[in-house]
Amino acid sequence: xxxxxxxxxxxxxxxxxxxxxxxxxxxxxxxxxxxxxxxxxxxxxxxxxxxxxxxxxxxxxxxxxxxxxxxxxxxxxxxxxxxxxxxxxxxxxxxxxxxxxxxxxxxxxxxxxxxxxxxxxxxxxxxxxxxxxxxxxxxxxxxxxxxxxxxxxxxxxxxxxxxxxxxxxxxxxxxxxxxxxxxxxxxxxxxxxxxxxxxxxxxxxxxxxxxxxxxxxxxxxxxxxxxxxxxxxxxxxxxxxxxxxxxxxxxxxxxxxxxxxxxxxxxxxxxxxxxxxxxxxxxxxxxxxxxxxxxxxxxxxxxxxxxxxxxxxxxxxxxxxxxxxxxxxxxxxxxxxxxxxxxxxxxxxxxxxxxxxxxxxxxxxxxxxxxxxxxxxxxxxxxxxxxxxxxxxxxxxxxxxxxxxxxxxxxxxxxxxxxxxxxxxxxxxxxxxxxxxxxxxxxxxxxxxxxxxxxxxxxxxxxxxxxxxxxxxxxxxxxxxxxxxxx
Length: 487
Ligand code: GLN
Hints:
The chain is α/β, with parallel strands linked by helices. It has helices at residues 9-17, 23-36, 48-63, 105-112, 155-162, 179-185, 219-229, 274-289, 305-320, 339-350, 353-366, 372-392, 418-423, 429-434, 463-476, and strands at residues 43-45, 74-78, 116-121, 168-173, 188-191, 211-216, 260-264, 293-297, 398-402, 438-445, 451-458.
């Protein structure tokens, strides 16, 4: 019989409904796997007591015939989401012992759909990073090769799902943090259209970009979770879209015959590693065999998305992070003189290097005298990037290309080189800046047998189309079913 941890969310939910297994047994199984593989660094906080209590409550709901779609399915949350029953740290010393009085909307929505929380997952500090090396607490290791990074900032989420420590996890994506770690760990992840998922209770990094989304093994599982996560939240998130909740599983099996896939030539330039390129090319060929048509398109400002993002995101971060002053939240320096000194020491001790770098860049680009030259220019180019996508979507239904220029790199290889990290975001940033939905689908293996993800980008609110295209691909391939050795 298939082991519990090898079941997809859809299969596990069916077993739970059929009472083949209880929610408590399932939770125990995954808690045990989590502690057996603790060295991977996926989890920051677990609590057997909390998880088992939630699982027992799910069993009661199951017994009463409750038909919630995820009833009894254990999932884990990126530690960017606040939770009342676990600490919420955003991977930062600043929030080391912070406890939220409430649950983030994404967490609450998944709980009402029946999910049980396995714990909180490691991530780069305040979601700033691409390797999980910026976590203030510990690194996370890629289960395909523990000498390599899992990607970031949702590194712990990707590790937990790839190593079968959780059937699915939540992540957040500001500039690629769901798609890139999903790609590096060989799993599936989707960032919805900006505004589809409530940001309430997501510890803010760059508010005009931050979005929540699921990371799981299959597109079908992502559809199940996304249906629970999304929905309007006008009272608590002013940028929430007024779109009704949607069942994203409905169109999964639709034919993709005649689907027009736009292939942006700027995604296949010099910077793309040949091993990644051949996996992507093969995936595109397979799509043709499945009936899709490839259309060459252009996203001419792709490279500009790097300077634009690395102005706008730090600008917003510098403002968002001003609340961490030692008075209102979390850490306060032990020794200080006057009030100003307390602020300074608290922030000097509480934040890590990358976060400080971004606060400085952000403060600089927003300062009088530089605002017009940097921030305002960046905003204008951001609009042009969004316009380029609208031009492209006149010719195609979805856009496909690589998620990242290379496979996961070695731990430490780029940790002293912030610019090298920033450049590697080139293919995920455009969709983020435009607010478009994007996903990563396992499509092969590259150098050192590391996973490669295909990125699919859709127009606004076209999540169902992306999930449909991904699901049809997964019916024809087994990349998403392979698992790292030893797990
Ligand atoms: N790697 C990007 C950054 O460091 C994206 C992070 C994210 O999406 N949270 O900002």
